[in-house]
Amino acid sequence: MVYKMRYTLAKFMGRMAGPVAKLGPGAGTSFPGIVFLKIAGYDALKQLASELKIGSILITGTNGKTTTTTLLIKLFSKELDIRGSYESNTVTAITTGLLQGRGDIGVFEYGIRDKKHGMPDTIQELIGPVGVVYTTISREHAQVAGVKNPFNQYLEAKTLLTDNMNHGVIVTNADDPRTANIGLNKSKDIKVNYYGVDDKKISDIFEDETVECPNCGNPLEYSHKFMNHRGLYKCPDCGLERPQLNVRLKSIEFEDTKWLLNIEGNLFNYTVNKDVSFKLHLKVPPFGFHNVYNTLASITAFATFTPNPDNIEKTAEYVFNNLDMSFIPPGRFEVVNINGKKVGLGQGDNYDYVIMTGCGEEQAMWENIKQKLIK
Ligand SMILES: [Zn+2]
Questions:
Q1: Tens of pLDDT along 31-46?
Q2: Which of 193, 254, 351, 357 could in theory staple to 267 by disulfide, Cβ–Cβ 3.0 to 4.6 A?
Q3: What distance in angstroms lies between residue 351's CA and the mean position of ligand 1's atoms?
Q4: Which residue, among 142, 12, 76, 48, has the nearest Cα to 298 in the 3D structure?
């Protein structure tokens, strides 16, 4: 009884803190969550999270979290009442999102640098997500803390977010051996839906770094790289290879003002508890290769959790065919004119400038772009 009252009070106070927080600088958008957790304690977060009809989805990875979260919210908002937050790397931000009131589903971006700077296993326990979406895990962010060789800790933190999941679905990038391996290790416990690219027109031309097998540590062999370490890989030692795709980019056509994406899906839908399939023909702005992955991640997550699988095609085509570039966070994309061709430079992968050309002159273009970037 005392607990219940404290919980109700905390919820009330937390919600009241919302409008106040907007007035003052500093405390930012997490203030209602801070108030709630201070009064009710961390355990109350479990109850708050369980009030959602379908449950919560956490989006994590090194890159593409914000864009994937944005796209996923766009997709769900056609049919559901959503609680969500962007760039919420803390439990208080997620709590703030949950405090917005009753809803069907929670969609939260969750970034973690390493175990010390986050609490992925605690988050998993308190939020009890029905879905965790992995975008990609790369080394870039791991340099921040100034810790020597922090990448393994970073990878471990990402893994901890789903380690104890015993219900729900993991949505993960099959082209990335690190995120694929997390899925493969969990597939004995819960369902995993994999997404990836199946059109070799998307090709990485400038990274040639050895990628360690996340399973045994030996170098992976790639027959094709789509982007950075994402590609068609196989470990000659332990046999790790790209898992079968549930959602695939079957083909891509590049036009000046539009890209045509052909996507096929066949996956387990958590909400209706059965397999569903779909075929999509999307016309998107020429938004860069990294956003092809963000598109696949958001569509896979949407198709996994929508309560109306019959509408997947209609909803996804509506959202993506009406997309303009404003969904990309500012400062992460620019279109430059090179040799009369419009080329998009996306900074979706932090330090990795991604080029998209869609023609056979990648190398020459890359030289041009590099010169431009150096200037
Ligand atoms: Zn291996």
A1: 788 888 888 888 888 8
A2: 193
A3: 27
A4: 76
Alpha carbon of 92 to ligand 1 centroid (Å)? 38
Q: Strands 131-134, 55-60: parallel, antiparallel or unpaired by DSSP?
A: parallel
**What pLDDT score was predicted for residue 340?**
54
What is residue 362's predicted lDDT score, i.e. its pLDDT?
43
pLDDT per residue as tens digits for the range 1-10: 566 777 777 7
CA of 243 to the centre of ligand 1 (A): 14
Structural domain including 341 reads 333-374
pLDDT reading at 299 higher than 70:
yes
Residue 232 CB contacts under 8 Å (≥ 6 apart), including other chains:
175, 222, 223, 224, 242
Among 108, 130, 283, 136, smallest CA distance to 196 is for 136
Give the single-character DSSP code of 148. S
Tell me the CA–centroid distance for residue 163 and ligand 1, in Å: 20
Ligand 1 mean position to 313 CA, how many Å? 37
Question: Which pLDDT value is given to residue 143?
Answer: 47
Whole-angstrom distance, CA of residue 28 vs CA of residue 23: 9
Shared domain for 109 and 209, answered yes or no, is yes
Co-location of 196 and 235 in the same domain: yes
pLDDT at residue 26 greater than cutoff 50: no
With a threshold of 0.85, does the pTM exceed it? no
**CA-to-CA dists, residue 369 to 212, 230, 250, 332, angstroms:** 29, 22, 28, 16
- Total domains present in the chain: 3
Check which CATH number belongs to the domain holding 272 and give it.
3.40.1190.10
Distance (angstroms) between ligand 1 centre and the Cα of 235 equals 5
| Euclidean distance between CA atoms 351 and 333, whole angstroms | 12
